[in-house]
Amino acid sequence: MKNKNILSLVLVTLFLCLTNLANAQSEIYGTWTGHCALEKSSISSTCICGLCSIEKIDDASVQIQTVDITITDKTINLGYTEPVEYKWDKDTYAISFMYKNSEETFKVLISSIANIILWKDPKSGCILILQKK
Questions:
Q1: Buried-state track 6-34, b at ≥16 Cβ within 10 A, e below 16
Q2: Higher confidence at residue 15 or residue 112?
Q3: Of 13, 30, 59, 38, which Cα lies nearest the Cα of 129?
Q4: Bridging pattern class, strands 67-71 and 61-64
């Protein structure tokens, strides 16, 4: 009897996880503020996501700007650009779209923290933290 209870618990947990992942695309809909995480990639260089702009403050410092992102079921709008269509890869939970004449692709990592999702650039490994407005 104990094994049946454990098996039932595992099946219910698996079902709930798969249900959550099935809705992953709809979880990105809305208006977000994107915060680029600064990653030190070597002793003399750093990496940030290509969606955030950098403002030079002085010779020794810069400020990384946030980016406003609006996502519908078909388009994405980054800052003040025109909305563009995006592609959603339901197998890998990745979003791809054109930005500044280049195709950008990010893996979408759904967070357990309310109103926070992470985008990871699979090429560079840089992270964009999205906070729902």
A1: eeeeeeeeeeeeeeeeeeebebbeeebeb
A2: 112
A3: 38
A4: unpaired
